[in-house]
Design goal:
Strand content: 15-25%
CATH architecture: 3-Layer(aba) Sandwich
CATH superfamily: Alpha/Beta hydrolase fold, catalytic domain
CATH topology: Rossmann fold
CATH class: Alpha Beta
GO molecular function, one term: serine-type carboxypeptidase activity
Number of helices: 18
Oligomer: single chain
Keywords: Carboxypeptidase, Glycoprotein, Hydrolase, Protease, Signal
Protein name: Carboxypeptidase
Organism: Panicum hallii var. hallii
Radius of gyration: 22 Å
Mean pLDDT: 90
Number of domains: 1
Shape: globular
Helix content: 25-40%
Number of strands: 15
Low-confidence stretches: 13-26, 42-50
Enzyme class: hydrolase
Structural class: alpha/beta
């Protein structure tokens, strides 16, 4: 056993000593499936992926600014003294506030930033984005997944997440696009013009302004991470940054890599992967799967007979056909709401509370919380925006060309999948990974945690592209497997694959 492996495990061991408290998934599944279904109707497979702004990134984005001419706001004004209900002995700095990304329209994005409690000055900077499209990174990412706190059932107090990613990085949670969470626009028509392109450019402008507010992070190694529809957001924002870098020779963010979990990458592959996942896991009968494969090619030519074959598992019929299961994790307990309005879990899974998505809105809609985080007090916070109209033509049918371009520019690109998710399942991600057509350099093998568990499986390709699974995790991997997600994230930051052997010897 190598000395590096032993040192690696010792570094992680102290982070993984305590159990996770509360975690859960937001109700983004219906929103994403509705988006997928709307995209699949009458759209050619070679549309926006080849003809949109992502086809020639340097021409599309190279003209964007590389600095902020008139920065506003300050670090001190955004400092959070303490979050209401937070536990004692919080040993890291927190900030939150607005960054205006369009002065003319009054479009402003809300962020929550947590520094690392361990030598923050030497840690990299990470931007986390949740998907939807149109769901909050503050609600899911920060308070249900990888953030330093969890909202307790009382909706008023917080508990510590011992496996938070700010143990190893300084993390920004951005609510994007405008209209999501506390982010807003003073021009109401902006909400009807949301889409991949504006989201990417606004997020880039946000970073330029944010770095002026926190200048000590200029030049710091920077990474973008996210999940679900962030399978679009993250590579697209990275594409904008790399295109500006290539065009101008300037590098305002020092982007080193992207890390995307259970990503939505391809309309048709995602639908095929989802249905095949259900069949593989015994949720669908052999006869039903045979009928689907008989009538569906999972492409733009599919017609009425395919829709009829898939209909038992479409959004309207899913819970009737599959039963009351959580598509984010088909083996996890679900949240039950009693007639008197109280909620409880249908079963027990250590460290997991499926009802947390009831607690988080209660917390963020408290006036004292809004005041503490410098949010607009009169704005109602919700997990996902209901007033956004997405420009579907801006969204590539497949993200494979964009991912391929990023890999060939030398960017570190890692995708990972919790293996119990049906919304953006591992089967779908594998189809897209195959479409990249990269040469395997390190074949599929198990990876281990310092606790001697098989954390999942991993494979690396030419150019450093890496695909990993997280064993026993659903769509929101840090919620279901916090220890394993932290191990994988730490490996990504270090640019090394997690251990291939267990320290335990029989």
């Amino acid at each position: 056993m190598g000395r590096n492996l032993i040192s690696y495990c010792i570094l992680l061991a102290f982070l993984l000593a305590a159990p996770l408290t509360n975690a859960s998934a937001l109700d983004q599944a219906a929103l994403l499936r509705q988006f997928i279904r709307s995209r699949s109707r009458g759209q050619s497979a070679d549309g926006p992926a080849e003809t949109g702004p992502w086809a020639d990134p340097e021409s599309s984005f190279g003209h964007l600014p590389t600095d902020c001419k008139k920065p506003k706001g300050s670090r001190e004004a955004d400092r959070i003294t303490a979050l209401p209900g937070q536990p004692p002995r919080v040993n890291f700095e927190q900030y939150a506030g607005y960054v205006t990304v369009d002065e003319e329209h009054g479009r402003a994005l809300f962020y929550y930033f947590v520094e690392s409690p361990y030598d923050a000055a030497s840690k990299p900077l990470v931007l986390w984005l949740n998907g939807g499209p149109g769901c909050s990174s503050l609600g899911a990412g920060a308070m249900e997944e990888l953030g330093p706190f969890r909202v307790n059932p009382d909706g008023k107090t917080l508990s510590r997440n011992r496996h938070a990613w700010n143990n190893v990085a300084n993390v920004i949670f951005l609510e994007s696009p405008a209209g999501v969470g506390f982010s807003y626009s003073n021009t109401s028509s902006d909400y009807g013009k949301s889409g991949d392109l504006r989201t990417a450019v606004d997020s880039y402008v946000f970073l330029l302004h944010w770095l002026e507010r926190f200048p000590e992070y200029k030049g710091r190694d920077f990474y973008i991470a996210g999940e679900s529809y962030a399978g679009h957001y993250v590579p697209e924002l990275a594409t904008v940054i790399v295109a500006v870098r290539k065009h101008t020779g300037k590098d305002p963010t020092n982007l080193k890599g992207i890390f995307v979990g259970n990503p939505f990458l391809d309309n048709y592959k995602n639908e095929k992967g989802s249905l095949k996942f259900l069949w593989n896991h015994g949720v669908m009968s052999d006869e039903m799967w045979a009928n689907i494969t008989k009538h569906c090619s999972f492409g733009p030519s599919d017609g009425v007979s395919c829709e009829e074959a898939k209909s038992p598992f479409n959004q309207r019929n899913f819970f009737t056909t599959a039963g009351r299961i959580d598509p984010y994790n088909i083996y996890a307990p679900i949240c039950i709401q009693a007639p008197n309005g109280t909620t409880y879990s249908s079963g027990y899974l250590p460290g997991y509370d499926p009802c947390i998505n009831h607690y988080v809105p209660a917390y963020f809609n408290r006036v004292e919380v809004k005041e503490a985080i410098h949010a607009r007090v009169n704005r109602h916070w919700s997990a996902c925006a209901s007033n956004l109209h997405w420009n579907r033509k801006e969204a590539p049918v497949s993200m494979v060309p964009t991912l391929s371009w990023l890999v060939h520019t030398g960017l570190r690109v890692w995708l990972y999948s919790g293996d119990m998710d049906d919304v953006c399942p591992i089967t779908a991600t594998r189809y897209s990974v195959q479409d990249l057509n990269l040469t395997i350099t390190k074949p599929w093998r198990p990876w281990y945690t310092p606790a001697n568990e098989v954390g999942g499986y991993i494979q690396q390709y030419k150019g450093g592209f890496t695909f990993a699974s997280v064993r026993g995790a659903g769509h929101l991997v840090p919620s279901f497997q916090p220890k394993r997600s932290l191990v994988l994230f730490y490996s990504f930051l270090k640019g090394v694959l997690p251990p291939a052997v267990s320290l335990w010897q029989p």
